Amino acid sequence: MPKPQTKHNSAHDTSAAVDAFMQGLQHPHHEVIQSLRPLFLSLSDEVAEGIKWNAPSFRTHEYFATVNLREKQGLGIILHLGAKIKTLPEGGVRIADPQHLLKWLAANRASVVLADTDDFLSKESALKAILAQWILYV
To answer: Ranges for the YdhG-like domain (predicted)?
Structure first.
C-alpha cells in the first residue's frame, strides 16, 4: 500500500531552492554538503530535497533528514521521522549500523557527524546503507 503523500509545493521544497541556498552559503564543509545531495537523491526516486529549518533537507512524503550546519565537530546530519509524531514499531527504529555512525538522540531521531571530506568519503557507503533503512520508517 503506498504511503500518503504530503504536499511539498512551496518554493522552499525544491532543488532550485537548495541550489540558491548553497550559492550563498559560506561554510567550511560546503563541499561535503554538495556531496551529500546526490547521495540522498540516489536513495530512491521518491527522495527530494528542499530547504527546511534554514538548511538543506531531504524528504520522501515527509522530511526525514536535515543538514546540521551548526555542528561543532564537522558537519552533522539529523535523521528524524518528519514533523508529525509517528507510532514506532515495538522496540523503536532499528537500523543496522556496523560502523556505529549513528548517535541516537531519541527513539525516533539520530545524528551522524562527518569531520571533513575524507571522513565523508570513508563513510559514504555505510551512510547510504543507513539512509536506505531510515527512509522505510518515514
So the answer is: 30-135
